[in-house]
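User: Can you write out an input/output pair for a complex, sequences first and structure second?

Assistant: Here is one pair. Inputs:
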Amino acid sequence: MNTIADPTPSTATGAQAPAPLAARPVPRRTGFARDTAAVFVRESRPLVRDPFSVLFSLVQPLVFLGLFGPLLVGAAGGDVAGTLQWFVPGILVMVALFGTASTGANLLFEMQTGSHERTLVAPLSRNALLVGRALKEVVPLMVQGTIVVLVAVPFGFSVNVPGLLLGLVVLAVFGIGFGALSYTLALGCRNRDWMFWMVHQTLLFPLMILSGMLLPLEDGPEWMRVAAAVNPLSYLVGAERALLAGDFGAPAVLGGAIAAVVTCAIGLVVGVRAMRRAR
Amino acid sequence: MTKHTQAGTGQMITARGSTKTFRSKGQTVEAVRAVDLSVAAGELVAFLGPNGAGKSTTLRMLTTLLPATSGEATVAGCDIRRDPAGVRRRIGYVGQGSSGGHTQRVRDELHAQGAFYGLGRRETRARAAELLDSLELGPFANRSVQSLSGGQKRRLDIALGLIHRPELLFLDEPSTGLDPHSRANLWEHIVELRRTTGTTIFLTTHYLDEADQLAERVMVMDHGRVIADDTAGALKESLAGDRITLGFAGRADASAAAARLGGELDPADPTRLVLTAADGERALPRHLRELAAAGLDVVTATHRPPTLDDVFLALTGRSLREESAGAGAAETPEPAAA
């Protein structure tokens, strides 16, 4: 068998007489940026190794696009292209919402198996453990968002490319924050999977419906419009609609950007605090 | 040869009065009670005790995973309270669970681990290749962690714990749940690691034979306290003698034999009498002759040298073997559940 480290000739046998210690370098200190990069790379690797996992989480948004979209066209009585122009930006927000909301489940699983514990005992900054994971959300989000748009184009959806890029940036900022909140939920639930999924399911559909991404809320009752006004997702949907249409100056763009930044800030602050308390 | 790190000459672990209390369902649970321990550089120490004795909690305090409620401890030259980051850089830790991310590839996890410990890219790759080879994981390097067998996963856990060549390695129940072959294989690797590198190893186990055969020193823990700390041989010698077990047709015979020879009836089977004797081989025929003269029929007779289980039994009045069998019924919660 080969030696495991620092081969030192030894006459010792068995466990009774250890070989003399060779000098061992102590790993050097690393900073937040380097630690975050290390965590980000680890989290992203499975995506690179198995890109189909990125496509898998596209099933739901594409189902909405393909099965809900035609109904919307029929109900509104408008043309397909016009309806898509209104509907596709909402689907992009849906991708960001559903993709990042369940990411905490990965952490939950790693907390249960023991690989999270391994990262806690490594000399990594706790902040980096959370931020590196949250930043990883950006990668699948960009790919998925682009695919949704490309799928819609043959049906008459017209894209303003700079608008799309800016729209993806806004979604990325939101996704980092929402992913961080999902990790926070996982850290809070520990070994209670059911609690994670219960909160997840309870929040996600109301957030989705009260954002106006599927159906306009203008005709809804007053209380729904009030709920939408405090839902950051409705600002995000408004911003995406303006950006993908190339309307960079619309007030909705600023509103969406602020909603994304606020979600991101809250998610990271809450997430980092939870990770610092993690055992 | 004399080029030591600071830990090469002195103590690798010292703890004084280490205590951990949890609040669980409105009650205060003392998981670890004022534990003192010291481990010298290069030692292989086994921490033995039933489930819930406080072994893992002690380990998690020493590895900075859990803050101690009170007490002082220095690990690999760093104070666990004042310099937890220093401790983390110097130690390797293999927890009870599986350390590799299930969707990750084996080699990728080793590379990630190298980055976590601040190793350069080239150094990480070289070290990962070395560990894959020495722990016989080479053929699985490109497989996902979830596709590995229990024994392979455990070897990966150890490889992950060794990526930065720590001077001190903590292993929390490294062989629990493995089949006998994988256990033996894992132990070969641990012994080989120590032989070639002199790494200090501190491990918990509830396998008596493991602690007995492989560790130079055994610390026995029960109800949050260290109740014995010596070599396995010395602990067994302290019991002064072999165990002789005599079986009888009924309880009355066994009691009558006890009245003559002393000893105690086996609580699990009161038709059996258990005796200790300095020299079991000679004592057994003597006892048989005496009982035959008294007209008592001995149905079965065995003698064996004392085991660590006898040590545990003598110290606590309970058998560790039975305690471990009833794993779920731990009286003190481990931190994972608290």
